[in-house]
Automatic annotation (TrEMBL):
SUPFAM superfamilies: DsbC/DsbG N-terminal domain-like, Thioredoxin-like
Protein name: Thiol:disulfide interchange protein
Keyword check for Signal: yes
Subcellular locations according to the entry: Periplasm
Family: Belongs to the thioredoxin family. DsbC subfamily.
Signal peptide: 1-29
Ranges for domain Disulphide bond isomerase DsbC/G N-terminal: 29-97
Species, as recorded: Ralstonia holmesii
GO CC, alphabetical: periplasmic space
Domain Thioredoxin-like fold: 120-240
InterPro entries attached to this UniProt entry: DiS-bond_Isoase_DsbC/G, DiS-bond_isomerase_DsbC/G_N, DiS-bond_isomerase_DsbC/G_N_sf, Thiol:disulfide_interchange, Thioredoxin-like_fold, Thioredoxin-like_sf
Keyword terms: Disulfide bond, Periplasm, Redox-active center, Signal
Cited function: Required for disulfide bond formation in some periplasmic proteins. Acts by transferring its disulfide bond to other proteins and is reduced in the process.
PANTHER family: THIOL:DISULFIDE INTERCHANGE PROTEIN DSBC, THIOL:DISULFIDE INTERCHANGE PROTEIN DSBC-RELATED
């Protein structure tokens, strides 16, 4: 199950009229065209949504606006906005998705893995990090799928965004004597975690981290090369990704 944070919630508005503000320009910000886009867009929607960068797109006269969780496009005046994918027909490449993936690449070594629930199967050589809500149905399906995968280490960042009960269960799981067992028992067998959940937890920090990394849905899987898979994937897709990582 997915959710929308503030930036993603703007998407429908982008489709019909405008985009967000709270603007940070990338290299080249001194160009008059970029300044004009900045001023117009900022005035349109105000300061509540951060625009991470504005750059020239490969198409003349079209500017790429990075909202973190999505990329949209504007003309040089900032008046007209296009919400959609830019395709290169010669190379059969989705330039929007390709660039968004690069913009959202995560540095694995920067992940605070001590704030994650860790479990290991086999030799644990293959690693993933997952942002997951205890009450997310697709997160449950992912955990059940992972029981089919060998030689894996999973770092789960408890990310309770669906309900107050999600927060309660996340606290109970984190405060359990065996966090990994409590997490997997709940996610694979619906065995409810016990205890009051009154210890210090990293939940608030995890929520802030997810926002910083533009995690807009659960589950969100991050691989050691910094790429991600938003949403549920199957075992075959995961194995193909691991094989690609091994070759790289």
């Amino acid at each position: 199950m997915s959710f929308r944070i503030r930036v993603a919630a703007i998407a429908s508005a982008v489709a019909v009229a405008a985009i967000g503000a709270g603007y940070v320009l990338s290299a080249g910000a001194a160009e008059p065209a970029l300044d004009k886009v900045k001023a117009t867009v900022q005035k349109a929607l105000g300061p509540n949504v951060e625009i991470k960068s504005v750059t020239k797109s490969p198409l003349a006269g079209l500017y790429e606006i990075n909202l973190g969780s999505q990329v949209v496009y504007s003309d040089a005046t900032g008046r007209y906005v296009l919400n959609g994918d830019l395709l290169d027909t010669q190379t059969a490449t989705n330039l929007t998705q390709e660039h968004l993936a690069e913009l959202n690449r995560v540095k694995w070594s920067d992940l605070p893995l001590d704030r994650a629930v860790k479990w290991v199967k086999g030799n644990g050589a293959r690693k993933i990090a997952v942002f997951s809500d205890p009450n997310c149905p697709y997160c449950h399906k992912l955990e059940q799928m992972l029981t089919q995968v060998d030689n894996i280490t999973v770092y789960t960042f408890l990310f309770p965004i669906l309900s107050e009960d999600s927060n309660t269960k996340a606290k109970q799981i984190w405060c359990s004597a065996d966090r990994a067992k409590a997490w997997r028992d709940w996610m694979t067998a619906k065995t409810a975690p016990g205890g009051a959940g009154t210890c210090d937890t990293p939940l608030e920090a995890n929520l802030k981290l997810g926002q910083q990394l533009n995690v807009t849905g659960t589950p969100a899987i991050i691989f050691p090369d910094g790429t991600r898979a938003p949403g549920l994937i199957d075992a075959a897709t995961l194995e193909r990704k691991f094989a690609a990582l091994k070759k790289s």
